[in-house]
């Protein structure tokens, strides 16, 4: 697999010079400055592509070319926005950037309740506390009918939390769930928004009446529309699983959570260019997902790999684990994807914060030293697996 790194452009505190020195081969990035739904021009794409190449690396993957909300809920501007998306894909194809990661999660991208959860060794990582997530939904968002979506033991914990939560605690929860994990990836909510909760509720309202089946149909419609461009320019479009892989979040359906969902998506538009970003971290956060079995089944349609792992904890909680641990079994996943023989782009995805990462001003989950450490660990795993393949040991 090709060793890649998610980089947030010229303003990223982590420079391409730093990445070249730690063995990164390809860059995963996007034109983050362009608003969702607008066309990525060939000039803008080439400007960034040539800049990356000047450091001896290549622009391996676009993550992400965002799918506008109106495409997801089938608003009146859907077809116009899909045409813009097709033009952006065409320009990427002309520039030779051939792997595009996207997601179809309504309103909210990945969600965590704690961005600096401590480990005993002094490091921190991202954490999801189901009760605190429910507290945000019921007590802060005050979504109608939210109480019906959580089990009794979680509702009891929400009641206990309500006795101790301070204004500062509530502000931090809002920040963690709908601000800090969203804005830096072309999200709907950004750091500068004055009333993020009000804005978030307005976005949720756009999906009223959109069932799981309707959201699936909207995804199928989008994929059918863009596949001719992908075929023409040999672009691999690969969907990112929902994170966390819950069938419903804030009353919104999620449709890429498990093997059945992925199977449906691949069959809905049965085209090699309609593929998967295999995010082991997202999938391993669901105790019901057999991550190794899913890798074996979907490897032929996987175009991009995120290697990280989670520990699933009691009561619906999970924590992002070290890359040598967790339930995803990264060594076995590397065996599966290396045997594909397609030199798939791989990035280590989130890492633990170590050696001052948490004070470095990095985006949540994207510190430098923790990811560098993880890349070293995964590089060692890859070397061992490739030795096994070379010597016919697997």
Low-confidence stretches: none
Mean pLDDT: 95
Beta strands, count = 14
State the shape: globular
The radius of gyration is 20 Å
The largest β sheet comes out as: 8 strands, parallel, barrel
Oligomer: single chain
Strand order of the largest sheet: 1-2-3-4-7-10-11-14
How many H/I helical runs?
Answer: 14
The termini sit apart by 17 Å
The H-and-E topology, N to C, reads as EHEHEHHEEEHHHHHEEEHEHHEEEHEH
User: Helix amount, in percent?
Assistant: 40-55%
Query: Based on helices, strands and strand pairing, what is the structural class?
Result: alpha/beta
How much strand? 5-15%
Summarize the entry for a quick read.
With 394 residues, this protein is α/β, with parallel strands linked by helices.
Keywords:
single chain; 394 residues; alpha/beta; 8-stranded parallel beta barrel; 14 helices
Which helices and strands appear, and what pairs or packs with what?
Layout: E1 2-6, H1 16-21, E2 26-29, H2 42-53, E3 58-63, H3 69-73, H4 78-95, E4 99-102, E5 114-118, E6 124-128, H5 130-140, H6 152-162, H7 167-179, H8 196-205, H9 212-233, E7 236-239, E8 248-249, E9 252-253, H10 259-268, E10 274-279, H11 280-284, H12 291-298, E11 302-306, E12 309-312, E13 318-321, H13 330-338, E14 345-347, H14 368-390
Parallel strand pairs: 1-2, 1-14, 2-3, 3-4, 4-7, 7-10, 10-11, 11-14
Antiparallel strand pairs: 5-6, 6-13, 8-9, 12-13
Helix pairs in contact: 2-4, 4-9, 5-6, 5-7, 12-13, 13-14
